[in-house]
Structures are given as structure tokens and as C-alpha cells.
Write a structure and sequence with these properties.
61% of the residues lie in helices and 26% in strands. It contains two helices and three strands. It has a three-stranded antiparallel beta sheet with strand order 1-2-3, with helices on one face. Helix 1 (2-28) packs antiparallel against helix 2. The longest helix has 33 residues, at 66-98.
């Protein structure tokens, strides 16, 4: 049984380091979600985020601009890391129960 506990402790340590890495990656990307608003025949992109309990919209630009495409990619990466972090936290809970 001590071998299994040792393996679980190593895995817990690895997962904690991974969680820290994911949290640092998440901090690099903008908070919020992409919001598209249509005015006339043009579509404009805004970044919607919460600050002090209120929802704010930050204008990014027209949908065809490079800045919009870059921001969409950043938001997508942030969501990917948030998903990975949730999985790591779930695995940590399971390991803590086992130990």
C-alpha cells in the first residue's frame, strides 16, 4: 500500500505544479467573452467582462480587423486553459480523497 501512496503523492505534486502553470497562463490572456453587435450593415466586436459586479463592454473593432481575430484567439486559449485547470482540480480532489 505504501507504493500506491507514494505514487499518489507524486501525482498530487505534479498536478499542483500543473495547476500553477495553468493559472499563470490564464493571467496572460484577457478576461471576458466576445460580444458581437450589429449596427446597420456592419458588425462590431466588444469584449464583455465583469468588474466590481458590473458588466463592461470594451470596443475592439470591426469584425474584419486583425485585432479582432487576435483577441478571439486569445479568448479561445484562455477558455482552453480554464478547462484544463478544472480537470486538474477535479483530479486533485480525487487523489486527496484516496490518500
Amino acid at each position: 500500500m505504501s507504493i500506491i501512496k507514494g505514487v499518489l503523492k507524486e501525482e498530487r505534486s505534479r498536478l499542483k505544479k500543473l495547476a500553477i502553470k495553468y493559472k499563470n497562463e490564464i493571467k496572460k490572456y484577457p478576461k471576458g467573452a466576445v460580444s458581437v453587435k450589429k449596427k446597420g450593415k456592419y458588425s462590431y466586436m466588444y469584449l464583455a467582462y465583469r468588474q466590481e459586479g458590473k458588466i463592461h463592454f470594451k470596443y475592439i473593432g470591426k469584425m474584419s480587423s486583425n485585432q479582432v481575430q487576435e483577441l478571439m484567439q486569445q479568448v479561445k486559449l484562455r477558455k482552453k486553459y480554464e478547462s484544463l485547470l478544472r480537470k486538474v482540480k477535479g483530479n486533485l480532489k480525487e487523489i486527496d480523497k484516496s490518500i
